[in-house]
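thought: fold this chain, then report.
action: predict
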Amino acid sequence: MIVRLDEVVKEKEDTEKLGIAPGDFIFFDPKTVITESGYIKSRFLDDKISVSILFGLLKYIKDNDIKPEYKIKIIISTYEEVGHGASSIPKLDELIAVDMGCIGEDLSCTENQVSICCKDSSGPYDYDIISKLVKLSKDNKIDYATDIYPFYGSDVSAAYRGGHDIKGALIGPGVHASHGMERTHQSAILNTLKLLINYVK
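observation:
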């Protein structure tokens, strides 16, 4: 990566006088755009878009006075990208990671669908939960795709590595160009939200 500094500097000491040092964090403008056709384009949609879906789920539960049969805990990890995000979590029976759905060669998901991941680099996800998510999608006319991500992991993967004996699953809106100028569609967000709502009910 090359970062161009818009300051007059000629040597290391000039840069240090600006308060810039090795290891400093660099924050890029996400350049978010929402098109009239419903596309959302931005850097870092993974996983900000998933957090927004979880906030939408909480609002829906409150606004509609829904009383889930089981206790729900929302966990927003900050280290999912480096592999240990949910390795330390409270005691749970089930964990559904809401992450981005991958799009690419040999994958089924599109920017309009909710992705249900059956297996990733850490191994298969729970058969019962996956089956339930697929059935809920079919029964409620939610546009979905099932996929296998051989090169990716999730917070469920981290929880497994942390020794948690839980049933786990991974879902998320289809996002194109992961870790670049990413793009999804409002329909993918709504499909993911609908699936979570129906799962909670």
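thought: worth noting. The chain has one domain: 29-200.
final: tokens above.
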